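Protein modeling request. Please complete all fields; requests missing the sequence field cannot be processed.
Requester role: graduate student
Desired output: 3D structure, token encoding
Chains: 1
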Amino acid sequence: MQLRQMREEMEAAYLSPYATQSSKSKGRAQQEEKCDIRTEFQRDRDRIIHCKSFRRMKHKTQVFISPEGDHYRTRLTHTLEVSQIARSIARALRLNEDLTEAIALGHDLGHTPFGHAGERKLDELMEEGFAHNVQSLRVVERLEKDGKGLNLTWEVRDGILNHRTSGHPATPEGKVVQLSDKIAYTNHDIDDAIRAGILLAEDIPKEIVAVIGTTSSQRINAMIRDTIANSMEQKDICMSKEMKQTLGDLRSFMFRKVYAGPLAVAEHKKAEKIIGDLFAYYIEHSEEMEGEFLRLMEEGEKKEQTVCDYIACMTDRFAVSRFHELFVPKEWNIR
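Delivered output (335 residues):
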């Protein structure tokens, strides 16, 4: 018997009735012969891990732009933390852990350089707007593998597209990732803000500390446990009213003190300047983009969309390097 079929039978016997079984996936846009070892969702996870966009996340901003220390989160470490939290919840609820992991690993593939500052600037520049969840879907459907895309299953693509607060994931695994994303970034951003000297541990409101504790591990553990307890044998994935309110209060606190604080705003203006100038330059000089993006235009993609794709794919340091190369005068070595 094939190993994949054995795994599918194990899923049918063990997973919750609300879980998404890999054998019942809605499939891929382009049909493929199934793997004899891995399930469909395991293949998706592997494709995401091995794609170029996944590797680039290690040099993309999470919250702090170009931090000097080695211990600040990047978009990649954020993604790994989301995956760990989501898998813990999925395992406890007997949901499909492979599907959960694939969605978690792919949810931020389309994020811009400089985090949400870059996202806001591209949203301003693009006539049809820009959102990183939509771009993440575009990455896996169109941009990866030289324009062929990764051909992921419908369930993984749905989870990637709908991971933001406004989204409505079709699977419980997608809902787990949606909530785990908030749990992860709210807590690890506190950790980074304290390390950067922007926050003190005692700045966190006492009413929040009373519910979830004083350390990062206590906060994450409390939220995971609450989610599991309130979602057990349920069709939906949810927190208790008290924990949901606490998470909302914590996010509001972080927006006031960190995300929209004076230090962040000052750096974001610089990042938006870089993104804006690069966008304008490549609209005028699109022939200077990398070959894979030129091929997109040759295949009929609009110039504006392709320039947007090019910039969204950049890492922070690549964007800064290009900006220096294009707009900063070189020193003359005159003797």
